[in-house]
């Protein structure tokens, strides 16, 4: 018996193989039944012709319920009409488990219903394509940072400190102490950069944000590179190289998935270095030109502002040099103009918003002490981070890329809830 998978069946054209599969849909007329099959690696059509199989198998093919699992055997033949390029001429079916009435039928369902059935919804063709693209972005991320000599370092999830302010922290008890779930590994990655030079982390982060938007998750995954002896400009180069690499990897390795999602790939093909850059000041001027007359220097940008700015470019755009007072305590002020910091947000095209936040970090002990006072970082939890400025402090920069927003943009799906296997949202912890 040639046991294989749908994805690998291309190597067996002309041969008879057996595949473990589920039925996703079927239709039949008089003497022929068409089975839509999936096996985790892909989706394929199985053709059951009445005069090719026993009467028993033909009846089975016509009556099988959706999501019934089986071993299905037949000859792989070329089929120019299918995106896959081949199908199976079925000769035998061995049912493993006959599925009960499956809640997700081929008809339309409301989003809350689908979210309640996320454990099953993951089987659908669209969700499968999005998760395969997510997987390719993860694979390409490891490849990029390994090829560029970064060391993978894992920061803790349970922490006593916060990098991005205290309002959005998840509290928990750590025996008798207070602890939080990590909202960013950055401070630990800075310590790691002083030990290993170029490092990156890839892990879950948590934000108790009361935001119910297409861009916000409570639990999301972040890639956080940190580089010693690296200034802001050099960091921007790494960022554009990295983002362009993952986009080009998806274009090359996920053709079927992009087609399934109906993604306009011509837009992705343009995502090559260098990316455009505008300063915060220029962004304010651009927004006023576009009719946002009320925006004042010193205010942060919201989703509508980011979308309006992104519309002027066909690649991701860096907005640099934000006002010091609206950014995090660790960002290095521009030596020529201390009211702005050496930082950038990378805004994705097509309204997907900020996918990267990054900056050069403060490396001067006196300035860092001053920031601690201004931000009330008095507790013992922050003492270790201050020590990094005492022992051979060097210029260093880093950034954080949000995985799910990046998956949403590259896949072209509207909402981040479809870009993570089991989304954690405001008011949703199930399933
Ligand atoms: O801009 P943020 O808050 O930056 C940091 O956490 C830095 N400490 C990173 C660093 O420099 N090492 O978050 C980084 C990215 C955002 O650009 C966005 O893509 C994503 O994380 N992100 C979210 N994604 C989904 N849901 C949320 N609630 C998110 N909050 C941030
Ligand atoms: Mg940010």
From TrEMBL:
<feature type="domain" description="Aminoacyl-transfer RNA synthetases class-II family profile">
    <location>
        <begin position="131"/>
        <end position="431"/>
    </location>
</feature>
<dbReference type="InterPro" id="IPR012340">
    <property type="entry name" value="NA-bd_OB-fold"/>
</dbReference>
<dbReference type="InterPro" id="IPR004364">
    <property type="entry name" value="Aa-tRNA-synt_II"/>
</dbReference>
<dbReference type="InterPro" id="IPR002312">
    <property type="entry name" value="Asp/Asn-tRNA-synth_IIb"/>
</dbReference>
<dbReference type="InterPro" id="IPR004365">
    <property type="entry name" value="NA-bd_OB_tRNA"/>
</dbReference>
<dbReference type="GO" id="GO:0003676">
    <property type="term" value="F:nucleic acid binding"/>
</dbReference>
<keyword id="KW-0963">Cytoplasm</keyword>
<dbReference type="InterPro" id="IPR004522">
    <property type="entry name" value="Asn-tRNA-ligase"/>
</dbReference>
<dbReference type="InterPro" id="IPR006195">
    <property type="entry name" value="aa-tRNA-synth_II"/>
</dbReference>
<protein>
    <recommendedName>
        <fullName>Asparagine--tRNA ligase</fullName>
        <ecNumber>6.1.1.22</ecNumber>
    </recommendedName>
</protein>
<dbReference type="GO" id="GO:0005737">
    <property type="term" value="C:cytoplasm"/>
</dbReference>
<dbReference type="GO" id="GO:0005524">
    <property type="term" value="F:ATP binding"/>
</dbReference>
<dbReference type="GO" id="GO:0016740">
    <property type="term" value="F:transferase activity"/>
</dbReference>
<comment type="subunit">
    <text>Homodimer.</text>
</comment>
<keyword id="KW-0030">Aminoacyl-tRNA synthetase</keyword>
<dbReference type="GO" id="GO:0140096">
    <property type="term" value="F:catalytic activity, acting on a protein"/>
</dbReference>
<dbReference type="GO" id="GO:0006421">
    <property type="term" value="P:asparaginyl-tRNA aminoacylation"/>
</dbReference>
<keyword id="KW-0547">Nucleotide-binding</keyword>
<comment type="similarity">
    <text>Belongs to the class-II aminoacyl-tRNA synthetase family.</text>
</comment>
<dbReference type="GO" id="GO:0004816">
    <property type="term" value="F:asparagine-tRNA ligase activity"/>
</dbReference>
<keyword id="KW-0648">Protein biosynthesis</keyword>
<keyword id="KW-0436">Ligase</keyword>
<dbReference type="InterPro" id="IPR045864">
    <property type="entry name" value="aa-tRNA-synth_II/BPL/LPL"/>
</dbReference>
<dbReference type="Pfam" id="PF01336">
    <property type="entry name" value="tRNA_anti-codon"/>
</dbReference>
<keyword id="KW-0067">ATP-binding</keyword>
<dbReference type="Pfam" id="PF00152">
    <property type="entry name" value="tRNA-synt_2"/>
</dbReference>
